[in-house]
Structure formats: structure tokens, C-alpha cells
Amino acid sequence: MKESIKAKGSRWLLAYSQGFHKFLPSPFAIALLLTAVAGFSALLITEADMVLRAWSDGLWNPSLLRFGFQAMFMLVLGHVLALSAPVKYLLDKVVILAVKNSALAPAYVALFALMLGWLNWGLGLVAGALLAKSVIDKSAKHGYGIRPGLLGAAGYMGLLVWHSGLSGSAPLKVAESGHLLSLYPKGADWQLPIPDSISISSTVLSTWNIAITLGVIFAVVLLFALLGHLFTKPSEDSKLVSPQSSLKDEVRSYERVGASSISEKLDNGRGLAWLFGVLFLGTAIWLTISSELEATRLGFITPDWINLILLGLALLAHGSIKNLLSALEKAIGGASGILLQFPIYFGIMGIVTGTGLVNILSGALVSSTSLTTLPLAIFTSSGVLNIFIPSGGGQWAVQGPLVIEACHSMGMSLEKGIMAMAYGDQWTNMLQPFWALPLLGITKLKAQDILPFTLAALIVSGLVFIIGLLLIS
């Protein structure tokens, strides 16, 4: 009977995974289809020339195009940093800690991925995948008996907290002066105009967001500790073997070769990379110190400031221009989707805001909710929309005006609306396997290997998010 249930579950997960690839086209194709839906919807309330004008204005909106580059740069730099020797050294230390108790190894991997994902989603995704792969290899080689799919799912957990963390697209972007008005100019005419910016001290670093995020981390780590005990069969005669040999293999590619010319010395030497690494970090510190009026509100933390920190750390961690560029070649492909999709999403935003469609949509949302349930409505709608728009930044461009209008109509603070959207966006990353593709490539796992465990994380974290949103309402 148990075997029959297990077989049925495996077939369902396989069908579920294949269904995403069969019925959902590429994210770029979905973006074009959503553009068509928005355009036809707008034609019901206005003229075609106004729709085309609004679409064109949104498509090449300068401030939003800058936002797209910032998001792409943040992803690439996080990935580059994850490929550096110091991060790989740290990963090996975590591997040693994880395999000391094979049943708790998934919990260690999940905790590490969650912490790094909160810091930077690109760093969390790649480092989590590399860590999961290292533990999978050790388990297979030395007979620790840890289920590979469970470890792969644990390495993916950084995507469950990224949007409520320091690289979250929406909270970082609204911290920039003028972004809210550029996204929704109508807000300038309100009796109480929307603010020029919202500092991350009121969103990401607010007490309630930190409490909700810590609640999610605690619940998910506890879940993987339980799953580790259920799905791990440790071998009695296996011995702990230090993974330091693999560290040497990984670091070998970062050794500098002899340089015979000035150009080679500049590319392979530490001097130029370390000089500008220190310069970038020093500039970030100077910006922090010089922003005295905003220091208590952390107003200096914007996408540009985060990218400045990441660029400086990447230069110092790789130690040479050549190593940095080598890692960049591996990382740049992950940003290709953002490059193509973001302008399309900006065009959708232009249609929604420029034709008055946002008033109809927000009116429907407000009429079906109350001040208490509005955060839940934003959360669930954001989770559903994330299946079709897997990019958090693109989703903010599309859903942001609706969130702003709904919060204004209901008298709810924008901070809560923004974070409710962020929670929904990151939550259903556990449901759709789009962002898991890099992890699956690194670990050589299949989507159906990790789905049983990511779906469990979806349920557990969803309960925490819902309870948290009800409490802050």
C-alpha cells in the first residue's frame, strides 16, 4: 500500500513538472501574451492611439530601464561573488559541518541558503546550489545516505526570502528618490501625495518584516531537520572525510600565472583589482557617513549602493581582473531573461497606468477586501502572478501601480502593501521551477527530485506569511 502511494506520488510530481514545460511557454512569450491581454483590456475603456502611446511610454521609460539594469547587475554580481575562492572555501567549511550529522545536513544547507538568499538572491541561489552539490557528492562517495533531492531543495531555499531581503527589487527600488512617482505619477495629485521614497528601514529592516522572515527561516530549517531524519539512512561504517581535497581543485582555477607583459600583470596581478575593490567599498562607506540626515532611516541603501558593495567585494574576492572576468562569463547568462523581459513588463505597466486600467483593477480588489484582508489579497495575487512573471522586478513594475492605488484607497500603509507583494512573489518560487533551473544544472537533479520538498516548504512558509500578514494588519 505504501509503495503504491509512493508510486502515485512520483507519477503526480513527474506530471506536475512536465506540465509546467508543456503548458507554460517561455517567460518572454508569457510577457508578450500578458501585453496582449493588457492591451485588449485597455481597448475596452479607451482609444487605440492612447493604448499605443501608453505602451510605448512604458516600454522605454528611462527610470525603469535603469531599474532593469540595476536588477541585472545585482544578479550577475551576486553570482560572480558566489564563484569566488573565499566563498567556495566557506562552502567547504559548511560541508564539513553538515556531514558531521547526516540527518541534519539538509537543515544546515537550508539555513545557509536562506541567510545568503536574504543578503543577495544571486549569491544565495548559486552558493546554495554549490553547497547542495558538494554535500550530495560527499554523501554519495562516503555513504552518508542523504537523499539528493532533499539537499537540492534545501539549496534552493534562498529564493524563499530574497524579496524580503537586502536585494529585494521592490523595497530597494522604492527607497530611491522619485521612483514611486515615476511608477505612478497620479499619486502626486492626491490630497496626501505618495512619498518621494520609502527607506528600507520601514520595509526590509522593519521589526515586523524581520520577525516574519525569521519565522519563515526557523520554520523551514525545522522542516528540513525533520525531513532529514525521515529521508536519511546513514551508513554505520561510513567515516567522515574532510572535503579539503575538493577545495584545492576548485581554487586551482584561481591561481595566477606568470605575467611577462604590462597588460598581463594588470590582468593577473592583485594590485588593480584590490585597489579598485577598496575604492568601491570606501566610496560606499563614504556615502553612508555623508548621508547624516538619512542615516537613521538608512536612506543611503539603494540598488546603486548595494551594487557598489557587491562590485568591491567581487574584485577583492577574486583577486585579479582575469579571475573576475572568467567568473563573469559564467554568470552573465543568468541575466539574459531580465534583459529581454523587463522592457516588456514596463510596457504592460505603461498600459495599466496610462489608460486608467489600474483604477478598474484596484477598484475590484478594494471592493472584495477589507483593511484586514487587503495584505492577504495582495499576497495571494502576487503569488499567482509570480507563476507567469518569475522576475520580481518585472512583477513590481506590473503590480506596483495596483498596490499603490489599492493601499491609498483603503488607507493602508504602502510599506505593508509592498512587502505583502514581495512575500507572495518569493513564496511561489517553491511552486514553479523556473528559478530552480540553474540549481538543477549545477546539481544534475531533475525538477521532480526537489518538488516534494519545495512544496512542503511552500505550505509551511505560507502559514507563517499568512499569520504574519494578519498580525501586522
Low-confidence segments, given as residue ranges, are 236-257
Average predicted local confidence, pLDDT:
84
Characterize the largest beta sheet: strand count, sense, and whether it forms a barrel. none
Radius of gyration: 23 Å
**Cα distance, first to last residue?**
45 Å
Structural category: mainly alpha
Order of helices and strands: HHHHHHHHHHHHHHHHHHHHHHH
Count of beta strands: 0
Oligomer: single chain
> How large a portion of the residues is in β-strands, by DSSP E?
under 5%
DSSP helical segment count: 23
Rough shape? globular
Question: Helix proportion of residues, in percent?
Answer: over 70%
How is this structure best described in words?
With 473 residues, the chain is mainly α. Helices cover 73% and strands 0% of the residues. The chain is built from 23 helices and no strands. Helix 5 (85-99) crosses helix 7 (121-142). The protein is globular. The model is unreliable at 236-257 (pLDDT under 50).
Short description:
This protein has helices spanning 2-23, 27-43, 48-59, 62-82, 85-99, 105-119, 121-142, 148-155, 169-174, 179-183, 207-231, 244-252, 262-268, 270-290, 303-318, 321-331, 336-354, 357-367, 374-388, 392-410, 414-427, 437-443, 447-472. It is mainly α.
Main features:
73% helix, mainly alpha, 473 residues, globular, single chain
Write the layout of secondary structure elements.
Layout: H1 2-23, H2 27-43, H3 48-59, H4 62-82, H5 85-99, H6 105-119, H7 121-142, H8 148-155, H9 169-174, H10 179-183, H11 207-231, H12 244-252, H13 262-268, H14 270-290, H15 303-318, H16 321-331, H17 336-354, H18 357-367, H19 374-388, H20 392-410, H21 414-427, H22 437-443, H23 447-472
